[in-house]
Design a protein that fits this description.
By secondary structure, the protein is mainly alpha-helical. Helix content is 47%, strand content 7%. It is globular and about 50 Å long.
Length: 256
């Protein structure tokens, strides 16, 4: 890889925190008025001196690692789906499970192969691990964190089925605060699925209502969302109430 920089000084550049002087080999071109091929195999520009900078093996390896890292982050964000920005975490790690549930509320990840007491126990263990990680970082969980980032960090890897276990206090293992957080996140998922923005104020401008204000389409989307959730959630009184309300709005005869 070569970087052509007219009239540059090698000591004046830096690359991701380390000096080009140590990492690069500088190959100077011909003097003004000449047309010469440099050791890098590139012709020097006529009418002025040029500096051809070739990355060393170490620098090329560093650049390759940096590029791969950026590509990995992009791929991770893509995998999290278009709603990831509305569930920001304290460390920037995408809350993939939370975001995915907006478009696919029945998607299973954390709850795969689990049911009943095992599901609740797993949810408890996952959340406790997050509490401990936050505490170890020197900044314990903060319920009032900016944009609710600690909420999403705490429950970021919980699929909607697991969130339901927390919301309903399955096994009596979850605090009232944890139940409220889970319920809030579930309501946020449902709202976004209906094209109603619910999330950090800083991200509101990036949200586009897919239904463009079409209330009939919005209600149909709500019904589809509720019909796709887990059997555990469908067995709750809260789900039945929301489903009946959505049906009433969608079917004028049901309101009579």
């Amino acid at each position: 890889m070569s970087i052509t920089t007219p009239n540059a000084q090698a000591s004046g550049f830096s690359l991701a925190g380390f000096s080009l002087k140590a990492a690069l080999t500088v190959l100077r071109g011909a003097d003004k008025g000449s047309s010469t091929t440099t050791p890098a195999g590139q012709p020097a520009a006529a009418g002025g001196s040029a500096v051809f900078v070739t990355l060393s093996v170490e620098a090329q390896a560093f650049m390759a690692t940096t590029t791969a890292s950026k590509a990995g982050k992009t791929a991770t964000s893509a995998a999290a789906g278009p709603y990831a920005a509305y569930f920001p975490t304290r460390d920037g790690k995408p809350a993939t499970a939370l975001a995915k549930a907006v478009s696919d509320p029945g998607a299973v990840s954390s709850s795969a192969g689990l049911s009943g007491p095992a599901l609740a126990k797993d949810a408890r263990a996952r959340m406790d691990a997050q509490y401990e990680a936050m505490k170890s970082s020197g900044k314990p969980f903060d319920f009032d964190s900016f944009e609710g980032r600690d909420w999403y960090s705490l429950m970021g890897d919980l699929d909607r089925r697991t969130l339901e276990a927390v919301r309903s206090n399955a096994g009596g293992q979850f605090s009232k605060q944890e139940q409220d957080i889970a319920q809030s996140i579930m309501a946020q998922q449902e709202g976004l699925a209906m094209g109603l923005y619910n999330g950090p104020i800083s991200q509101e401008a990036s949200f586009t209502d897919p239904f463009r204000g079409d209330e009939a389409a919005r209600r149909k989307a709500n019904l589809a969302f509720l019909d796709a959730v887990s059997t555990e959630e469908k067995s709750s009184t809260e789900w039945a109430t929301r489903r009946a309300a959505a049906q009433a709005f969608d079917d004028p005869l049901a309101r009579d």
